Amino acid sequence: MESTPHILIVEDDQEIRTLVARYLKANGLRVTTAPAAREMDRILQEARIDLLVLDVNLPGEDGFSICRRLRNSTPLPIIMLTARTEEIDRVLGLEMGADDYLGKPFSPRELLARIRAVLRRRPDLGPGYRSDRRSRQFAGWRFEPLSANLSSPSGTRVPLTGAESDLLAVLSDNSGRILSRDALLDLTRGRAAGPFDRSVDVLISRLRQKIEVDPRDPQLIRTIRGNGYLFTAEVQVE
């Protein structure tokens, strides 16, 4: 089986597609490109893709619509490319299930770093991308970071995006400790937060919707005003 991660870039700007594809290939990744949704859908049907790099501003079906559609049917990791000045694009992308975002203009080196960070949790992509995080239980929930599987106290499987799984892993690894937004972003994405970066807040909100009895009055993930977030549940690691 082919072990080299296969990246699909969906970007309507041919110059950007060519530049990024050339750089990623030079750094050991398999790369396929598409200019729009129709070509992307055909490629997804014909080939195994390990990660999707998706531009927001595409002709026809835009990146937000594509992300929402794919997230309803596949756990395929998605990194969205957004306009640097449009913070709402980044928030919307995360709310629709993207694993990460990168503002334009960007360097191919930074995109490569983001791709590698997202792929590290995939257990099937070889030793360079393998996670060794163990399963754990908390408040009746069972969570397997390696496969991003989360089961409720009743046994119902609750789907997680890769970014949500990363965040829950960090929170449950640090139960009882207050973690700042900067610390959470660094631990989950390997980068510092920008002055207007709301990605952690968006992901916290999404996790609360999935694991809290009442997301409006969260008990498992508490906000510590002025300091960050606290995961309160006792965690048993297997």
TrEMBL record:
Keyword Cytoplasm in annotation: yes
Domain OmpR/PhoB-type: from-to ranges: 133-233
GO terms for MF: phosphorelay response regulator activity; transcription cis-regulatory region binding
Organism superkingdom: Bacteria
Subcellular location: Cytoplasm
GO CC aspect terms: cytosol; protein-DNA complex
PTM annotation (4-aspartylphosphate): residues: 55
Alphabetical keyword list: Activator, Cytoplasm, DNA-binding, Phosphoprotein, Transcription, Transcription regulation, Two-component regulatory system
UniProt record, GO biological process: regulation of DNA-templated transcription
Major site of localization recorded for this protein: cytoplasm
Domain Response regulatory intervals: 6-119
A Pfam short name: Trans_reg_C
Chain segments annotated as transmembrane: none
Binding region for DNA: 133-233
The protein's name in its UniProt record: Regulatory protein VirG
Gene source species: Prosthecodimorpha hirschii
